[in-house]
Amino acid sequence: MVSGTSTDGSRRVAISGIGIVAPGGVGTKQFWDLLTNGRTATRSISMFDASQFRSRVAAECDFDPVANGLSRREIRMWDRTTQFAVVAAAEAVADSGVLDVLVPERTGVITGTACGMTQSLDSEYAIVSDEGSAWQVDQAHASPYLYDYFLPSSMAAEIAWRTGAEGPVGIVSTGCTSGIDVITHAAELIAEGSADVVIAGASDAAISPITVACFDAIKATTPRNDTPESAARPFDRTRNGFALGEGAAIFVLESVDHARRRGAHVYAEIAGHAARANAYSMTGLRLDGRELAAAITAAMRDARVGPADLDYINAHGSGTKQNDLHETAAYKASLGHVAYQKPISTIKSMIGHSLGAICSLEVAACALAIEHSVIPPTANLHERDPQCDLDYVPLVAREQQVRVALNVASGFGGFQSAVVLTKPGAVAR
Amino acid sequence: MTAPVVTGIGVAAPNGIGTEEYWAAVLRGESGIRRITRFDPTDYTAALAGELIVDPAGRLPGRLVPQTDHMTQAALVVAEQALADAEVVTEDLPEYSAGVVTSASGGGFEFGQRELEALWHKGGKYVSAYQSFAWFYPVNTGQISIRHDLRGPSGAVVSEQAGGLDAVAKARRNLGVGARLMVAGGVDGSLCPWSWVCQLQSGRVSDRSDPKRAYVPFDAEASGWLPGEGGALLVLESPEAAAERDAGHRYGQILGYAATFDPRPGSDRPDGLRRCIELALADARVEPSEVDVVFADAAGVPAADRREAEVLAEVFGARQVPVTAPKTMTGRLLGGGAALDLATALLAMRDSVIPPTVHIDQFDHASLIDLVRTTPREQPLRTALVVARGFPGFNSAMVLRRPA
């Protein structure tokens, strides 16, 4: 008999529902089709006139809020980030079939975001300042929803209200590692017994002039504007930055016991995780990948797996010169020679870098890789970089059983995170 | 769960920068509420706030100043105080054993306003290279981590005014799974015209002009709250780590915590406040009768004040426990407020004195709660409860106990 409690006494955590809004389509099926076909969703920015910017490429979501069931009032009240989160959560909850058995007091909601309501704050600022002409912004032109943009609370609150969750509700933000950290925070709440079910995941919709300008200023985004569909080239010798993306992935997480009692389908278990900080730079990385390696090692220890057990690594793969070296070094440091034998891919090559949301989308890709025994490829990887000499699964998906998957992330602020997912019942704990 | 020990405190508040400066001001009943000076508030519907002016000159390395919002500068000053108070040399700690968790609201908004102005007025290429991280929610965590070489599990949480407790709870969780030391809490508030208008649009900021009568929770004339700037950071250590290095200060232990969320407004279900307090007491294994003082959320919004008074009467019995809200002297500090309440509660237990809730001339809930008003009340305090509520429904509660 398999126990619902791991050997350290804490309760195990299952992913039993997935909901996605991503470039290339709304819904988990469209997301997985895009990834496994190796198609890219990066294109020239269409959401605003980006002609003044260095990087004019992004992976935008073709998202119709009305078609996804939101009312006109909701669309006006909520920033696109909240709209994504609400729609993705609805899919996850429906997918899990958990709604009818949710106990309000035992249900939580934890959402993650890097940029919150940036898009609304950017456009509303332009209105109250009259295109930046006055420091003393004009309250007479202020939206009644500004406070709801000032703080990103609505993305968690609305999911809680729609599902009746009255347990722990909150927002976790750690820049570009938010999408992992939100899931591990939720998993901790379940493991410690503060909730039985937590709806958790991350959303970001920050393709907006201020965001594009920020990344232009530090040359983090790709200026390959003439060929947007192949602009994001992680691990490729010609890589020159990421393509900004947007999207959301929300999960239903529950204790393994809770899932078993109700006969739920389980995609994967959250088997282990760890977070470290590099205490080095708000944006830069030391090329030895030391702290990321420490996070990977600690996450594997937490999951009670070793390097040899890993079947798939979903990489951070932002496609900046620096990141891909940092990350490759971290794999070698944490996995040893085994690193060369592991399939490692990054979906940022296809759906861009949606900042806080992307890691939740990547966790979804890991769960689906476990579910379908397919490893998504790294698109646009044609020219090998001699310093990036691992197996990055170029161009074409691989059919292969995945029992243990690792997802990693590095973020501004120095955050380094790793999470291990396992196929249900695959690893003795 | 392990009950971490608080071994260091750092504070910056509108009525005092530095833990003892702030504490002395609070006991004197000295308020930091005043008309905003950082910009001209004349054209806005409210003009009072708890402003915090921390001059970074001499307090921070010059290179940090151009890359940080004034909120982050204050947070860095407070973190340094807290670690100095704990007398801990972070470089000597085992690798990856110490981290940072802070609570945020809107991030470095004044910095963000400057860069939005550059973008919209002059063009994208005038936006600062620092904007990508100076505005974002975990900026204080990242900068504190870098300055003090803290490389363990770290993060930031956002839950409006409840975030200060949630940050400390997350740090407690990290201590439960192997970290030895955490810097946790919140220093928040980035007043500027743009953040001011965002906050005013909540409709909950008092528009009164008398600094003594604008933010008056539990008062018959309560008219909303006033935003303030500042907060506190605590150094938390596992009891083993604190004992091993024979830490000089033991302000108290984090005994228990819980968080709940309210149903949608208009629901016929009860809100989550009572359950939150009861869960926190249960987590702490403390009976209501053992609680010696409650630091209230004190929203300043009449319906919320009444509800909080009712719940405290239900849990503890009417007027059975002293209640206080010294935040009437600072305003509500968003992500920093509940963290400052934790610090204040620890100092109150240390000195056996309950700080007052000043400015409450027309106390409205005398049948429900025993509110400590006007002057401090001296009495031994062993156990304190801190309550924090965040719009639009966050409830958090934390139980503290002074060292034996």
From TrEMBL, chain B:
Annotated Ketosynthase family 3 (KS3) domain residues:
1-402
Mind telling me which Pfam families this protein's record contains? ketoacyl-synt (PF00109), Ketoacyl-synt_C (PF02801)
SMART domains attached here? PKS_KS
In short, the EC number is: 2.3.1.-
Q: Name one GO molecular function term.
A: acyltransferase activity
Transmembrane residue ranges: none
- Which SUPFAM superfamilies does the entry mention? Thiolase-like (SSF53901)
Q: Which UniProt keywords apply?
A: Acyltransferase, Transferase
Keyword Transferase recorded? yes
Q: Which InterPro entries match?
A: Beta-ketoacyl_synthase, Ketoacyl_synth_C, Ketoacyl_synth_N, PKS_Beta-ketoAc_synthase_dom, Thiolase-like
Family, as annotated? Belongs to the thiolase-like superfamily. Beta-ketoacyl-ACP synthases family.
Give the matching PANTHER family. Answer: POLYKETIDE BETA-KETOACYL SYNTHASE 2-RELATED, POLYKETIDE SYNTHASE-RELATED
Protein name (Swiss-Prot/TrEMBL): Act minimal PKS chain-length factor (CLF/KS beta)
What's the source species for this entry? Kutzneria viridogrisea
